[in-house]
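ok so heres the complex, two chains, lmk if somethin looks off
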Amino acid sequence: DVKVTQSSRYLVKRTGEKVFLECVQDMDHENMFWYRQDPGLGLRLIYFSYDVKMKEKGDIPEGYSVSREKKERFSLILESASTNQTSMYLCATVVRDRPYGYTFGSGTRLTVV
Amino acid sequence: LAKTTQPISMDSYEGQEVNITCSHNNIATNDYITWYQQFPSQGPRFIIQGYKTKVTNEVASLFIPADRKSSTLSLPRVSLSDTAVYYCLVGDIASNTGKLIFGQGTTLQVKP
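and the predicted structre for the whole thing:
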């Protein structure tokens, strides 16, 4: 089975801090994604990457950046954390064998105080 | 990307069959229909996927009519542990980006 590992389950950071959320997958998949999930808003796509050093903005990229230096690792960066970035962050990769679909990590619940 | 519409919430009792219907009028020829389940504080988990007709696995069944403009996830004899949010996704996973749109999902509450 594909494994997607997010480095932290819970994080508490201060306003203005630079925050790194790490995601690692073990199946050599090209496509990786970062979502945030908030009550009443569902999952919203922040950024995705379809290859090393390639990135594309999703629906809500403002305040975020990403890094993909190696195929297995996709990092989400909050340049200067703000309280409105308190959320659950989910990383995913895409399985290309049937059944096609996402495999998600367990999520990182980030609180910015 | 095909937009999906599903009920915001549903209630059921233990032992009942639950059917959640998703509308996707703009589904494209290459799109698959995939359902995910999400428990609180966890990432969504794949349940079932289909292209047309009926698909069944050990967890659920998926019914897709000939026009493919809707689909129904069927959970037989639900238990309290099936309380979760269920998402219907429509898209072409095999495309270059595999980018899908998650709607708000259906919150299923199973009562004793």
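quick notes: The mean pLDDT of chain B is 91. thats all i got rn
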